Amino acid sequence: MNGVLGEISSRMRNINLIDLLTRYQHFEELHRRLKEFPEYNLHLPPKHFLSTGLDVFVIQERCKLLDQYLKKLLQLPTVSCSIEVWDFLSVDSQMYIFSDSLSIIDTLSDKAPAAIVGLVGRKEYEQCAKDLYYFIQSAVFMKQLSFDLLELLLLSAFPELDYVFRQFDQDKQKFGELKLN
């Protein structure tokens, strides 16, 4: 079953409008992941399981409810700044496949260094392992990794650009700074 694609319009930094296509199951997966946040208390609009999924009125109503859900979601500061939400709203989210490979997470948890677990606690360590696993899958991580690899390649080919990259590293925290009016 292909499912019905819904369109999300996302205004990124009030500059450009990005249209994303997403399936309801992606909202379900996002909702499941966000339940980990203590301040997240939203309810995902129902899918209307009694419809065929092709009823125009039902689809329009679902889109309206999902839009309201996203607006409420973006009002939660900690949740809206999470990797899960950023990844969901990114252009690359169309390519992103939610997966939960328990074997990898279990391996990260089972092979935990006793000293670290003793310092932070088992539950906190396991949550950190899950967060790390999801972050490594995210488009945000892949973009950052790509930029770092590109920088290494350019520096190996053009060592004289070292000063430029050092200056960029010093100034990069200025990009994306939140400026309140």
UniProtKB/TrEMBL annotation:
Ranges where the PX domain occurs: 1-96
Main location (coarse class): cytoplasm
Superkingdom of the organism of origin: Eukaryota
SUPFAM superfamilies named in the record: PX domain
Designated name of the protein: PX domain-containing protein
Keyword Electron transport: no
UniProt GO cellular component terms: endosome; membrane
Keywords: Cytoplasm
One Pfam family recorded for the sequence: PX
Claim: Metal-binding is one of the keywords in the record: no
Cellular location(s): Cytoplasm
MF (Gene Ontology): phosphatidylinositol binding
